[in-house]
Write a structure and sequence with these properties.
There is one protein chain. This protein is an alpha/beta fold. The protein has two domains: 110 residues, Arc Repressor Mutant, subunit A; 304 residues, Alpha-Beta Horseshoe (pyruvate-formate lyase- activating enzyme). The protein has 17 helices and 19 strands. The chain starts with a helix and ends in a 12-residue tail after the last helix. Monomer. It is found in: Cytoplasm. Its EC number is 1.3.98.3. This is Coproporphyrinogen-III oxidase.
Length: 454
């Protein structure tokens, strides 16, 4: 990739798991009443036709990984498990009371934190409590994030018997110096153990999460990590850029500082070399930061133009409605967003008073909905069109003017009311989306809100 393009376009920018992005939500006009109305509208339109998605945030971890920006509670006290599950099931009850029929669950994902912090018995109680009040779609997909160090055969068997067929394991990097800096020590044998165990049990989609741009990480470390990954041949790989956002993580980044991070040019080289190695191993690049084998559902979704992106990242299951349960979880009704309170004690307090525990959100207007669809098209398919009347909006001409530099640089092509991102432009997909981000243009932040795009 041209070093000049990296310097030109390596700016802070959103990852666009939503539009509007969270910092630009209109919290002042948001209310719990409006949020419930948007849910009911979406449910009536889509429950029967496509079902809903559920994300459940399980925030507990036994130790702090210093690269992580997720909402978590560090503890070794496992007596916290049962009260938390009780609270999540209370929240699910409050949502189910809004609807006049049982929700049809198409997708369910357990994230964290560390879902495998929870004992198999408690995970069984959680999932049975959820499905007791719902119907499972014919093609439902259940998935969870597992820590290679503490995922047991009992975890894998319990969740498999509950319908889970996809699991992702956080690898990050196999180099010991990098692992030490990010406080995530896990040898290859642990990843190999859980990967082979999951495969033998019958999981049909096993994923590994790898991160580039980590402290002390080099191109050789990427080569080593991907060489070991190729030995295990996971079905899909999330190859993420490390998001350096110390203003979010606070003092959690111990063991390194900004000077220990690879520079932008080297960081991008890590990705480009990693991509070549993965493609050589039979993987196909999916969207912005995923790779999949042709046998995986994510590949088929991309090939059939059904790839979707939401707060869980790229997914093969597209639903208008995604309900987030648990502290800090974000929900999406398509017409609105909401986020739960981040403190566990406040979360418990609101649920004890029969209140859905959201503390902020945004109700989308017509322009928001149009821009949201454009950004979703770009993130999933690298192209979008404004031929349809519902995809035209007042600021479209201004956006096209903002794309003029990218046209000159060969990153995009615009013709017949259609924009296509070129092969050279794919690494800059976040930058192209930023041109459509009217709220980002109108409310230029005075301080840095997002990680760098490259």
């Amino acid at each position: 990739m041209s070093q000049n393009l990296i310097k030109k376009y390596n700016v802070p920018g959103p990852r666009y798991t939503s539009y509007p992005t969270v910092p630009f939500w209109d919290n002042n006009s948001f209310s719990l009443k409006l949020w419930k109305q948007s849910l009911q509208q979406s449910f009536k339109e889509s429950n029967t036709s496509e079902g809903i998605s559920l994300y459940i945030h399980l925030p507990f971890c036994e130790s702090l990984c210093t690269f992580c920006g997720c909402n978590k509670r560090i503890t070794k006290r496992h007596e916290v498990e049962s009260p938390y599950i009780t609270a999540v099931l209370k929240e699910w009850d409050l949502y189910c009371e809004l609807f006049d029929e049982k929700p049809i669950i198409k997708e369910l994902h357990l994230g964290g934190g560390t879902p495998t912090f929870f004992a198999p018995l408690n995970l069984n109680r959680l999932i049975n409590g959820i499905t007791r009040k719902a119907i499972l779609a014919n093609n439902y997909e259940f998935s969870f994030e597992g820590h290679p160090n503490n995922t047991t055969e009992a975890h894998l068997l319990t969740l498999f018997n509950l319908g889970f067929r996809r699991v992702s394991f956080g690898v990050q990097d196999y180099n010991h110096a990098v692992q030490k800096a990010i406080h995530r020590i896990q040898p290859f044998k642990n990843v190999q153990r859980v990967t082979e165990m999951a495969r033998n049990i019958g999981y049909t989609s096993i994923g590994h999460d790898i991160i580039f741009g980590l402290p002390f990480q080099t191109v050789d470390h990427i080569r080593e990590t991907i060489a070991k990954t190729r030995q295990l041949k996971p079905d899909r790989i999330a190859f993420y850029s490390y998001a350096h956002t110390p203003w979010i993580k606070g003092n959690g980044q111990r063991g390194f500082n900004e000077n220990n991070l690879p520079k932008a040019e080297e960081k991008r080289l890590q990705y480009e070399i990693g991509k070549v190695l993965l493609i050589d191993a039979g993987y196909t690049e999916i969207g912005m930061d995923h790779f999949a084998l042709p046998s995986d559902a994510l590949y088929n979704a991309m090939a059939n133009l059904k790839l979707h992106r939401n707060f869980m990242g790229y997914t093969a299951s597209k639903t208008k409605m995604m309900i987030g349960l648990g502290v800090s979880s974000i929900s999406d009704s398509w017409y609105g967003f909401s986020q739960n309170v981040k403190g566990i004690e406040e979360y418990y307090h609101l649920l004890d008073h029969q209140i859905i525990p959201v503390f902020r959100g945004h109700i989308l207007n017509e322009e928001d909905l149009a821009i949201r669809q454009h950004i979703l098209n770009l993130m999933c398919h690298y192209k979008t069109s404004w031929n349809a009347s519902n995809l035209k909006f007042e600021n479209l001409d201004k956006i096209l003017n903002k794309l003029s530099e990218m046209l000159k640089d060969g990153l995009v092509i615009i013709e017949n009311n259609t924009l296509k991102i070129t092969k050279q432009g794919k690494p800059f997909v976040r930058n192209v989306c930023m041109a459509f981000d009217v709220l980002l243009q109108q409310k230029q932040p005075q301080k840095q809100l997002f990680s760098m795009t490259i």
